[in-house]
Amino acid sequence: MKAVFTPLGIILGLAAGSLSKKIFNVIWGAIDDEDAPEPKYREIAFAKLIPALLLQGAIFRLVRGLADHGSRHAWRRLTGAWPGEEAPDPQ
């Protein structure tokens, strides 16, 4: 069953990435009138770049994590099997 869930997880991960980019653009538009700074440009102020990257990373991680966890619960309801580990290994 894991072999069937893996491609589904990849597709949902790509969709979550696209959604997180749209959410970031909306939030950044409310913060600043200019487009979000990108690291590829030479003349970018770190004072704008750092918060933009932090916000973008947090949004991506949140949306991707929710999509992954939600899809695993949906898979369990559909098939009865959890696609992954039940709990983290104790250290």
Structure commentary:
This protein is mostly helical and 91 residues long. It has one domain (16-79). Helix content is 70%, strand content 0%. It contains 2 helices and no strands. It has helices spanning 2-31, 46-79. Helix 1 (2-31) packs antiparallel against helix 2 (46-79). The two termini are 28 Å apart. The model has no long low-confidence stretch (mean pLDDT 93).
Fold blueprint:
Elements lengths: L1 H30 L14 H34 L12
- C-alpha Rg (nearest Å): 17 Å
Helix content estimate: over 70%
What order do the SSEs take from the amino end to the carboxyl end, as H and E? HH
Mean pLDDT: 93
The total beta strand count reads: 0
Oligomer: single chain
Instruction: Tell me the number of helical segments per DSSP (H or I, 4 or more residues long).
Output: 2
Cα end-to-end separation: 28 Å
- Stretches where pLDDT is under 50 for at least 5 consecutive residues are none
Helix vs. strand class = mainly alpha
| Number of structural units classed as domains | 1
Shape: elongated
Sheet with the most strands, sense and barrel status? none
- Give the strand content: under 5%
Task: Spell out the key features of this protein.
single chain; 91 residues; mainly alpha; elongated
Quickly describe the structure:
It is built from two helices and no strands. By secondary structure, it is mainly alpha-helical.
